[in-house]
Each structure stands twice: as structure tokens, then as C-alpha cells.
Write a structure and sequence with these properties.
mainly alpha
Amino acid sequence: MQHRSILRLAAPIILANISTPLLGLVDTAVLGHLDSARFLAAVALAGVIFNFIYWGFGFLRMGTTGIVAQAAGLEQTSEVKACLLRALMTALMLAGIILWFRHDLARWGFYLLHGPVEVEALAGQYYQIRIWSAPATLSLYVLTGWFLGLQNMRAPLLIVLVTNGINIMLDFMLVYHWQLGVKGVALASVIAEFCGLLTALAILLSYRHYLAIRLSREILFNTQKLKQLLRINSDLFIRTLCLIFAFAFFIAQSTRLGEIVLAANTVLMNFQTFMAYALDGFAHAAEALVGRAIGQRNRAAFRAAVNSAALWSCAVALGFCFVYAIFGDSIIQLLTSLSPVQHAAMAFLPWVVLMPLLAFLSYLFDGVFVGATWSRAMRNIMLFSVFIVFLPAWYFSWDYGNQGLWGAMSVFMLSRSLLMAFVYKRFGLKTIH
């Protein structure tokens, strides 16, 4: 029965998530078939900055899901609405801050990354357009998290399909037909994000029983609830910044290894992203089921949700290992026609083949910990994995160049998986009374 619930919740999210790395594949393929690797490298460089700016505020989605799922488990309908409004106000305030300081963020970001001059110039063009999607992007985090907390997995599916479908269509139109290059890719993303927001708001209107609830200022600005939101979001923010730092460090070191290595690693990271988004489907299902089980104080449901999600996550991870091992070379050739980039990517493909087995538990337990609102444990494990495991692993293997860099990333993923599994095994069920 629990397997059926996991699959029912996970299937729409997996479909939605797969379309997101598919968009990355299209971006890579569109730019990878232009006449130089610098176009692909430019978007990768600017993408590091946007990972900090946008992905850094991913706590708006994660924090909302866990709190809403637990409130729904307790049947606190007014709190479910209040969670949405508090999170949306936070998202719009943060988006305003991002836009106000957009020039400073760009200056510091490109200074720290220090890419080649021609690549950095193109990345700047991408940045100046893409930054204007901030209000839509952050608001979508909140709305998606709210829908997930209520176990409405079809809403995120529709939002993502609309957003990415429009983005892919505009990619081809703006890059190939109008010859806008990296500007076209950025403009396509901005237009698509706002179309996704309009779709989410239209879906929200169907929740009349929540929207009709009148909230007093005392409920909306409840001090205890605001403190809980601040604590969870601050923990998740630190955790996410550490994760972004690890990937940004990976890209920055790739930049220092040359344009070809940077482009090759950008191609290979699409493999990683595709796998991660697919496994996140089971993590999101676990978030909703775990949050509701905790709200209901149901230990049996909690344990069953985790075990079922773990089984399916492992099966999917093995499937990715097989597909990447058999078809990896062909996928690389589809993503770029540049021969030097192809050869470089194929040399490091074995790391990508191994990665799903090393990482699948970390994605699963991210979902479990979010649903349980164990944000402090997530923060501490990430801090340890980045600064005690990943950076020392890179330092002691830097003589091996890009092989050492991929080795350090693999050890980082394994560390997260093992530590989160240990915390769950040791302390998980004890927190449910």
C-alpha cells in the first residue's frame, strides 16, 4: 500500500523534474552546436552566480513543504493558508533585495570566478537579462512547496511543463532564428518563469476553501510561527549555500583547468542533474508523506514511507548507472559536436556512471529531513561534508587535475549519504512521540 502511495506521489514529480534537466540539455545542445565553446562556457559561468542567487533561496520551497505538510496532518487549515502568505511575503521581499543589488552581485560574482575575458563578457550579457526573473522564480519556489505539502503533485508537474516547454520553444526561436546567442537563452528563461508563475496562480485559485479563510494579524504574524519559519529557513539557507559552494567550487576549478575542461564538465553535469531531478521525485513524495505522518504522530506511516521511498530510489539509481554506462558516449555526442569537448567528457564519464549509487541516499534523506523539518541536522551534515570532506579531498588530489576534482565530488556525495543515513537510523523515530 505504501509503495502505491510513493509511486502515486512520485510519478508526477519525476515527470516534472525530468523536464528541468531536459531544458538544461537543450540549452547545452543549442549552445554546444554554435561555432565556439565559449558560448557554452559563458552560460555555465553565469549559471554559477544564479545558483547562488536562486538556488540559494531554495529554502523557500523546502521550508514551506515541511511546515505545510505537518499543518495539514494536524488539520490546521488556517495555518496552511498562513504558511503560504508568510512565505510569499518573504519571497517577494528577497526578490526586491536581489534586484536592488543586482549590479553588486554581478561584480562580486565575476570577480570571484575570474573566467576568461571573452567568456566573462558573454556571461555578463546573460546575467543582465536573467536576473529579472527573480520575483517569478522565488514566488514559484513557495507555491511549489505549498502544493507539495498538500500532496498535490500534479500542480508542480503542470507548472514545470508549461515553464520548460515555453523555455525550450523560445530557446530555438531566439538563438537559431533571431541569432541572439546567450541573450536569447537568458530572455527565454525570464519569459518562461513568469508564464510558470501565472500558471501557478491559476491553480491556486482552485483552493477556494483555503483562500476563503480570513486570517487575523495575530495568526498571520504569530511570533512562535515566525520564529519557527526563521529558524528552519536560516538552517536550510546555510545548508543550501554550502551545497552551492561545492558545485561552484567545482565549476571554478574547472575554469582554471581550461576552456575545454570547463565545457566538458558542463556537459557531464547534465548527467548529474538529470539523475538528481529524477531521484528528487521520491524525495518529494517522502517529504509529503513524512510531514503528514509526523503531524499525525504516526510512527508506522513514517517508517513505511521512508523504507518504500528508499527501495524505489535505489532501483532508479541502478537504472541510471546502467544507462550512463551503455549510452554515455552517445549522449555526449548529442550534447556537443565539438570534438575536443567530446573526448574530454568521455575521459571522465566513469565518475558520472558511479555517481547515482553514491548519491541516491543523500537525495532521499533530503526529502525525509525536509518533511520532518530536521533543518539543523541537514545544515550540520552539509557543513561537515563540504569543509571536512570535500575541500580536503580536493586539496590532496589536486595533482590529478580533473580526475581528482571528480574524485572529490564523489567523496562529497558519499559523505552526505552515509551521514544522513546514520542520523536517521540513530535518532529518526525517537523524535516522534
